[in-house]
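ingest -> validate -> predict -> emit
validate: passed (alphabet ok, no gaps, 218 aa)
predict: started
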Amino acid sequence: MTAIGLTGGIGSGKSTVGELLSARGAAVVEADRVVHELQEPGQPVFDAIVDRFGAGVLTREGVLDRRALAAVVFEDADARHELEALVHPAVLSELGRLRVEAEARGDVVVLDIPLLAEAGAAARSRWGLDGVVVVDCPIDVAVARLVQFRGMSDDDARARVYAQASRNDRLAAADFVIDNSGDTTHLETEVDRCWTWITTLDNRSKDVAPPVEGGIAP
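emit:
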């Protein structure tokens, strides 16, 4: 079994790459999806968030308003750390469980973790990764996507991009870089190239330690 970490900055197209790798046979575990599921009404994480941040982070329908919550924590580092303390332990536990299930489904497991680069070098050994794939694109391209597809203003999009690890730091953590600065055809070619690299990696057996704290976007 080969374990790959997949990461990329906001607006890079990382989720699309995860879907393309899944289509090629990888068992993909998405940290963002786990976060969203744990933040659904009725979940302990949801209740803890509402207790801490109040009803102002809910929609009229009583579900989590992710934009409202992001607005609260984006400018307040203490609030962001409190949110991480509420969310991360449950997410890490669920990711570990899903990874075990994924290993039974295929020879390649891809752990899609947005802030893998921010988690540092320890994340590689703690997750037992054979390699880290970074989805990369110029900052202006990422900003344009956030404006077009997520409805952000240009200033807000740039602030979100610059709040993460720098592009250079993320590339420094990569074993393989997927360039997603072009069109869909270009991306398909890049993912094919990446899949060839993944399937030719040495399949080293290893004991996987518990995942390192941090490196997951709320």
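The two ends are 29 Å apart (CA to CA).
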